[in-house]
Design a protein that fits this description.
The protein is about 80% helix and about 0% strand. It is built from 14 helices and no strands. It has helices spanning about 1-5, 20-40, 45-70, 80-95, 110-135, 140-165, 165-190, 200-225, 230-265, 265-280, 280-305, 315-340, 345-360, 365-390. The longest helix has about 35 residues, at about 230-265. The protein is globular. The termini are far apart.
């Protein structure tokens, strides 16, 4: 124990890559994403979709601050590892109480207060560790202080929302999370966040996107359950895999270009690109994948219960096509903020996905999944052709 407290932070190098301990942290995030999807699937509605996104924002903020910390110093050694382990436990606790944080009635305040307190622990540990490692870096210390101020302000509506519940909780938590995320951007603009290893930073965010995409595959099993699998459900499962693969390839091509741009940048501009293109623009990417996972689970659940020929309800349709549109919009934003270049098809793709929504609403679930798959395959094929044409020219 004494060795832990006597240890000094190990500053990362330009060539630093994600550690196994950071990947282990991601497993806790996986659990949180599963809990968000489970919560939304229990009572699917428009309000539930908004609530799920707010909880996703909270989980994203909890993960994000340690991705930045792990880029500046190694988080798998000494006192920092101990602190991150405690923060990991707090994130796990947040994930556990997610389904109960929006309930009303006697005793419903307790889960909300647990979530707020656990989130407070996550952020307090983060700031304490950042203060420690920034002792010899005046610019980083100033940035951390600015961010700590806005985060402290966000805790007021977060705590009040936990106490009041209901509609007030929804509005106050939305305000709190917007203030919290905006605080990081504000600190970035005023003082700047350092990015020591662009490879580490890009890879950390890429791993999270892959994790979120895996949620769609997990939802296949959740939707089918233990019921006997018939040919239509097998086809739907394979279509889900195709959708997931397409979304991954669409992201990976963009991530490769963005990673090169981040590597060539330097100084404060690198931090600006990292903060906006990765920390901000990746949130809609995650939100889109979680919604698609919800839509897949609803479609498979209906098919498993013998409702293959019923048309899709609005919530699953919004989750499938609206989630895809959100994902593609996040990808376009990611490209604008990183490589500062978006092809016409990348800009128009989210709108096309939204135009398919009312069509998918009046199709059976399997047909709607087929329509979504056909759209993504066509988009992916066209982008591959456009890239080859540009290279030939």
């Amino acid at each position: 124990m004494g060795r832990i407290f006597r240890s000094r932070p190990v500053v990362t190098a330009e060539t630093h890559r994600p550690t196994l301990f950071e990947v282990f942290f991601d497993l806790v995030l996986v659990f949180g994403l599963i809990r968000v999807t489970t919560f939304m699937s229990e009572q699917p509605s428009a309000v539930t979709l908004v609530r799920g996104f707010l909880v996703l924002m909270l989980l994203w903020n909890s993960w994000l601050v340690y991705a930045w910390l792990g880029n500046y110093v190694r988080i798998d050694v000494g006192l920092i590892r101990a602190g991150v382990t405690v923060a990991m436990a707090a994130v796990f606790l947040i994930a556990l109480v997610i389904p109960e944080t929006w309930e009303t009635g006697p005793g419903s305040t307790k889960p909300r207060l647990i979530l707020v307190l656990a989130y407070g622990v996550v952020r307090l540990i983060q700031f304490a560790l950042f203060y420690w490692v920034a002792a010899d870096d005046p610019r980083l210390l100033r940035t951390v202080r600015l961010y700590a101020l806005t985060t402290a302000l966000s805790w007021i509506p977060l705590a009040l929302g936990a106490v009041f519940g209901g509609t007030a909780q929804l509005l106050l938590w939305a305000l709190a999370l917007i203030i919290d995320m905006s605080g990081g951007v504000f600190a970035l603009l005023v003082s700047g966040w350092p990015v020591r290893s662009p490879g580490h930073f890009g890879e950390r965010h890429g791993l999270v996107v892959i994790i979120a995409l895996g949620e769609s595959l997990i939802s296949v099993g959740a939707g089918i359950g233990t019921r006997m699998i018939h040919t239509p459900t097998l086809v739907a499962a394979l279509l889900t895999l195709a959708v997931t693969v397409c979304l991954y390839w669409l992201y990976s091509a963009s991530a490769a270009n963005a990673g090169q741009a981040l590597t060539t940048d330097s100084g404060l501009h690198r931090g600006f690109v990292a903060g906006n293109a990765y920390s901000v623009a990746h949130l809609p990417l995650l939100g889109g994948t979680i919604y698609v996972a919800l839509g897949v689970e609803e479609v498979l659940a209906a098919m498993a219960h013998g409702k293959s020929h019923e048309t899709l309800h609005w919530i699953p349709a919004i989750a499938l096509f609206g989630g895809t549109a959100l994902y593609l919009a996040g990808r376009a934003t990611f490209l604008v903020l990183s490589v500062r270049c978006v092809r016409p098809e990348q800009f128009l793709a989210p709108g096309v996905a939204l135009l398919l929504l009312p069509v998918g609403r009046y199709l059976p679930g399997l047909a709607a999944l087929g329509l979504l798959t056909a759209f993504l395959v066509a988009l992916l094929s066209y982008e591959a052709w456009a890239r080859r044409s540009t290279q030939v020219q």
